[in-house]
Amino acid sequence: MKGLLLETIRCERGELQNLEWHQERAGRSCRALFGTAGSVDLQQIVVPREADQGLFKCRVLYDTRIRKAEFTPYAIRPVRKLMLIRADKLEYTYKLANRTEIQNFFARRGTADDILLVKNGCITDTSYANIALFDGSSWYTPSNPLLEGTRRASLLAAGILSPAKIPPHTLGDFQEIRLINAMMGLEEGPRFHPQDIIQIT
Q: Which pTM value belongs to this model?
């Protein structure tokens, strides 16, 4: 493993959101990488007074214990077009603070605002979010994401999303595509139609 692990937690009006899912992932990552759950207790994070109002991103760096927690104001950035990029060898099972490989793929986005990575013939994630796809009656998410996000996990557990293998050529079967992550719920993230995605040529 290279460097520290990372959790990005939504802090709204002074309250850390979806904390049980972040804690579960942090514990799972520590057990897999260090052989112990360590002493990473996200409940112990102190929210600073300036984050008592509005929306903030809490960025937690940790290994076997929390090394740093920083809060910054957050606003959802607009994303209007995605570029499909193959990334068969990319591994991002654990949420590492070092995102150099993903940033290298992001640099290849051309005229698009972000990338949508394709691995082993199926779509996975953008550079910073899982995706949700609506076929007119139900919501789906790739069953093989690069990273199992906490928002995605909570929506799967609630039965709002269903996992599915989604090859790029089937994107036209969906009416709408949305980005989701710890900072963006299903109703909040950028929205796309299949024609907003630049196909691999």
A: 0.93
